[in-house]
Amino acid sequence: MSTLLEVSGLSRSFGSVQAVNGIEFSVGEGRCVALLGPNGAGKTTTIRMLAGLLKPTSGAIKYAGQSERADVREGIGYLPQSPAFYPWMTGLEFAVYAGKLCGLGGREAGRSAGEWLERVGLKDAAKRKIGGYSGGMKQRLGLAQALIHRPKLLIMDEPVSALDPVGRREVLELIRELKRETTVLFSTHVLHDAEELCEDIIIINKGDIALQGSLEGIRNSYRKPIIELTMEPDEGSSRWARELVASVAAGQGGSNPLLADAMLQGNELRLSVREMEEARSHLLRSIVDNEVKLVRLQAGYSTLEDLFMKVVRI
Amino acid sequence: MSKGGKKGGTSRYGALLGKEMLELARSMKLVWVPLVFVALGIMQPVSIYYMPLILEHGGNLPEGTVIEMPMPLPSEVMSGTLSQFGVIGILVLVLVYMGVVSGERSSGTASLILVKPVSIMAYLGSKLTAMLLLALLSLLCGYLAAWYYTDLLIGKFAFGEFLGSFLLYGLWLAFAMAATLLFSTILRSSAGAAACVLVLLALLSIAANLAPHFAGWLPGALNSYAAQAANSTIEYTDVFVWVIVCTVLLIAGAYALSCTLLRNSATID
Q: Locate the ABC transporter domain: which residues (chain A) (predicted)?
């Protein structure tokens, strides 16, 4: 797998606020990469620097096979968070215009625009003014105009977060098709979208990379056995749960070799365990001894969601 | 990527200019801005011709008052028209174009355009071209209308004088448009840009009138040169040449500075 994009030491500050803090990552050719993080993590800032709209305070962005004189924008298609078009243009006119700006000749721009509008499902609306388009239609037009010159890398900023469930599904399906043809990098704050589409994820938080790697690798190496308990909201059960959490917190596992982490939310107790068999029988004994009124007990493995919440909360 | 259909920078400039002209047509600016100039151009000769009649009917004058006004020369009417364009005409043009760059940047369309492999020179150049075309077209329509009515109501006005004063005044409008482009690039606020341009133009005109020896070579002097050209009292001195050269250089400089500022700004969109 060859590297298409290499980012090193990329930083950007706005006044005293450090929005992006020396991040490093690379994007392999043909991969689909999600830039994942909560709101305000620095996703949009990073994306805008990659698209060349914002100058980095320091650091380098290198596209593979890029000679000194070549315009990196030739190889990039970019879809901003909420694309703003000229409302007085029709969808077809804008797509043709975008094609011409990418250096396509008049006839080729027209042909390519027609093809892409058909692919994104805007064939019937192609001759209507963009001012009358819905949010989903604008997003799909945004994809068409970004792809009109067949870029090597498609960069999207929150492509689905402003859409209703139907529009969201449509755009996700489109991205799923497109990622077979081109390298895709998009930002999102929804883990589910990343899990559904991507091979690689980069989780960023407060301008730093919290975690990155292939989705499979991360899922395997961070998969931890967990036990979830639900109790009735009576005094005795709550006290037992609080003491258990306190003992794990105090000993950092030292006094409690079986439990790595414990978290109490209302009547739900989440336990990360080191060794499932022993921990389960130990817990069950403790529950019986302390007459805890158990509603539900479930043993399983942590999800990516748990990991995401954990790295992002730090 | 196919190499066959790729074209150079000029075709991109062409596409950008095509979009600007289409926008002018769709927003009807290509119609109503020249119409404003036509209205201004007609108003001057017509109001001068009917002035005695207007005073007679409008004022609280006693019965039997005789008003006699000497009819002004056609050249005076035409130069008066130019000063009408200088106030309301320029105001309209500046207001139409005050957000020419800042508007696209704040609405977000600039970010769609400038991630494409388009040079900033072509982007701003297409805008300046469209601005100049609209300004000169409006001036031509308005000035022709003034000429027609002056000819009809007041007297003959020669073509040579018409062309000379049109070109000189057109250069002043071109300078105003270049200044609008520059301030719209510098400032994020359209209203701020309009205010700066109008103040700058007013200062230049006043300076040229008050201190012709110091500010006589600045674009502000074009106003009085255009009026002189209409009155055929123009003297082609060294200073006159300087005004032309200086204005052309300032227009080019404003364009170049806009390009540099936009290219070096931290956020392009």
A: 5-231
Count of domains observed in chain B? 1
Give me the long-range contacts of B8-13 (CB less than 8 A, separation at least 24): B8/A103, B9/B119, B9/B122, B11/A100, B11/A103, B11/A105, B12/A100, B12/A101, B12/A103, B12/B117, B12/B118, B12/B119, B12/B122, B13/B122, B13/B125, B13/B126
**Residue B7 scores a pLDDT above 60:** no
pLDDT averaged per 10 residues in sequence order, chain A, 314 residues: 87 90 91 90 92 90 72 87 92 95 91 93 93 90 93 92 86 90 92 88 90 87 86 87 83 64 84 85 88 88 82 75
Minimal C-alpha gap between B196 and chain A (Å): 27
Contacts of B266 in chain A (CB under 8 A): 54-55
Are residues A211 and A267 located together in one domain of the fold? no
As a dihedral over the C-alpha atoms of residue B78, residue B83, residue B85, residue B91, rounded to 10 degrees, the angle is 180
User: Which amino acid is residue A124, in one-letter code?
Assistant: D
Residues A205 and A285 in one domain: no
Subunit contact A101:B113, Cβ cutoff 8 A: yes
Residue A239 and residue A304 in contact, taking contact as beta carbons nearer than 8 Å? no
B268: closest chain A residue by CA: A53
By residue range, what is the domain housing residue A305?
225-313
Per CB-CB distance under 8 Å, the chain A contacts of B113 are 101
Closest Cα in chain A, distance from residue B37 (Å): 25
Is the CB of A104 inside 8 Å of chain B's CB atoms? yes
In a domain, B79, yes or no: yes
Query: Which chain B residues are Cβ-neighbours of A55 within 8 angstroms?
Result: 266-267
Which chain A residues in 57-76 lie under 8 Å from chain B, judged by CB atoms?
A: 71, 73-76
Decide if A166 touches B, using CB distance below 8 A: no
